Amino acid sequence: MKNLLKSVVVASGVLLAANTASAQQKIGHINTAEIVQATPEFKAAEEQMKTLSDAKQKELQGMYTEYQKKQNDANEKLRNRSEANKTAVDAEVQEIANSMREMETRIQEVQRVAQEDIGKKQQELYAPIEQKVFTAINAVAKEKGYAYVLDISNGGIPYFGGGDDLTADIKSKLGIAAAPAAKK
Fold first, then answer.
1. pLDDT tens by residue, 106-127
2. How many CB atoms lie within 10 A of CB 165?
3. How far is it between the farthest Cα atoms of the chain?
4. For the chain, which terminus, N or C, has the lower number of CB atoms within 10 Å?
5. Cβ proximity of 71 and 100 under 8 Å
């Protein structure tokens, strides 16, 4: 009986300590999108992505222009076709049509490769930035004793009623100057 009573007291003490400990866990929140976009690396990555995208777009635009030129040539030949040159013009138009089909295939391939290249470049540029930010998030959370840090940037939290905002702390850890406060 004495052992049972001791067990109940010890178990109650453990439960009380566990409840007290869990009640004291700190919860904070951050906006990772804001933090990532504030990094100098993000701005440089955005410039590189724009340059790459513009180059790919220019390449495709050149192909579209050539395609349209061939289409205009075919239309012009058909407009000037007569009974006397019908066979020769039809053969030329058929040759242009075959060339245009080949161009369509090349354009689709260039588009596919461009999308792959852009995706690879995004991964190459943004992954290190995200890793740097998440390392800073973990460091600040540990330094400040937070058990949980929620990201409010992606809309995955249906209700947000407060908690400590660690966004400025993370930016500080990354050496990002705080943005000036907006005037009301």
1. 999 999 999 999 999 999 999 9
2. 13
3. 119
4. C
5. yes
Residue 155 lies in a domain: yes
pLDDT digits (tens, 9 = 90+) for 25-59: 888 889 999 999 999 999 999 999 999 999 999 99
This prediction has a pTM of 0.67
Look at residue 135 in the predicted model and tell me its pLDDT: 93
- Structural domain that includes position 63: 26-173
- Residue 182 has which token pair? 């907006």
State the total domains in the chain. 1
On whether residue 11 sits in a domain, the answer given is: no
- DSSP assigned state of 155: S
Q: Is 28 helix (H, G, I), strand (E, B) or coil?
A: strand
Which position has the token pair 């058990």?
Answer: 147
Classify residue 7: in a domain, yes or no.
Answer: no
3 CA to centre of own chain: 61
Do strands 26-30 and 164-165 pair parallel, antiparallel, or not at all (unpaired)?
parallel
List helix spans (H) across the chain. Answer: 2-23, 32-38, 40-79, 86-144, 167-173
Q: Do residues 97 and 74 lie in contact, with contact meaning Cβ atoms separated by under 8 Å? A: yes
Alpha carbon of residue 36 to chain centroid: 11
- Range list of H helices, 31-85: 32-38, 40-79
Does residue 58 fall inside a structural domain? yes
177 band by pLDDT with thresholds 50, 70 and 90: confident
